[in-house]
Amino acid sequence: LLLKNRCANPEEGNRYLRPCHTELADMSLLLLLLAAIFVFAVVLVVTYLTYRRLYDNLQFKPKVLNDSPVHVKIAPRSPSSGNVPSITISHSLPEMKEVVADGVQDVAAKKVAPLRQITLPAVPTRHLTFQRQLSHRLDLSTTVPFEVCNMQQRESLGTVGAIQPELYDQEGLTSGESGRDSTDLAAQATTCGKLHFTLKYDIDLEGLVVKILQAKDLPSKDFLGSSDPYIKLYLLPERRKKFQTRVHRKNLNPVFNESFVFAMTLDELRQRTLQFSVYDFDRFSRNDLIGHVIVKHLHEMCNPTHEMEYTMDIVGVPQDKMDKLGEVMLSLCYLPTAGRLTVTVIKARNLKPMDISGSSDPYIKVILVCEGKRIKKKKTSVKKSTLNPVFNEALVFDVPPENVDDVNLAIKVVDYDRVGPNELMGCCAVGQLATGVGRDHWLAVMDNPRKPTAQWYPLVDSLPAELDPPRTPSVTCLK
């Protein structure tokens, strides 16, 4: 108030005093300094309290756990000890679990297994199921006193469409009918040209010398009316040794003149079969299979002294049958260390319409077959009202490395029907016992483990018995 009065009447003040505006500035600076000191003190107190709380949390330890070493005392078990354990473990073990019940604190020792990676298990316990299924055999003794009163067989997917049992219920077949399999196969097969080659067994090299001379009258696979053929050579049944010729661009009568040597003894030659697979190379899509030439009885067709020339027909799958039933695209990948076979069903196209509306409800069933026995069966989801379904579903099978050479896959495209039985739309096979694309694809997967390999498969009506073994019928009632 005095300062205010003095500032109001400056004539009455002392001449030695400072002006009023200077004193006001000093007072404002003092108040600002006091406010800053107060804020700093508050921040310091909050920081200190926070630090104390964090420090207390970090320093907290249960009373049961301490840094003392683990002491294990083993004492002999006496008859009068009752249920007292012979091993006493101190409470300092880190894996001890504290249990409080009725106000009494009891510590129970719990054995903790060491951590390990589960991607590569030490003991492949997953393969025990595979071995158990493989070794299982159905053995019905005639001494078992039971009578089957009704046996229901599930839906049979052996052929396309409904099966008429009366067509197969015949007492006897003539010798011509029983031996007509070879003639039927020859009638159904189509000739896709001729292959000219020579065979010779070289005693000095101890190997089979195969020379591919020329291929004639090959079918055109391109839109321009030509093909880019090349030939792959295999030795059956293991197919571990393979060779491949050069690609001849735009040529339906290519001249190869290439020689290949398969190292083997004469005894091994008696057990081998030579296969030529003729392909059309395509830079931007899959290579088309033109046909096969299979040479049996190699020990009779080879001469150690000179080359033997042969000209054989190239046999292929009828294209109209492939277009009629459609195709399915599969990707295979095998992990030998983990023993896992992954079958990825990608998509299908140009399937056969099975419904009245001209569409279908397809799903794909994959059956794992080993040594003529069904081991595992998996299937995809159902795609409604489509003839070109896209699945993109992975089906994983456990296959031990010691059994991978005996494994085959039966692929079936089935039309789902909510009311009646499901109908087979087409099937294909992959594996050592398969022919054509199925065998070549399997070999490529085995030669390139851990790498997914995709392939289009043409669908056929049925599969051989060794690739599609019948299922055991189920008994519904016994007397």
UniProtKB/TrEMBL annotation:
Keywords annotated in UniProt: Calcium, Membrane, Metal-binding, Repeat, Transmembrane, Transmembrane helix
InterPro entries: C2_dom, C2_domain_sf, Synaptotagmin
Protein name (Swiss-Prot/TrEMBL): Putative synaptotagmin-10
Listed transmembrane segments: 29-51
Localization of this protein: Endomembrane system
Any one of the GO CC terms: exocytic vesicle
GO biological process, one term: calcium-ion regulated exocytosis
Originating species: Rhipicephalus pulchellus
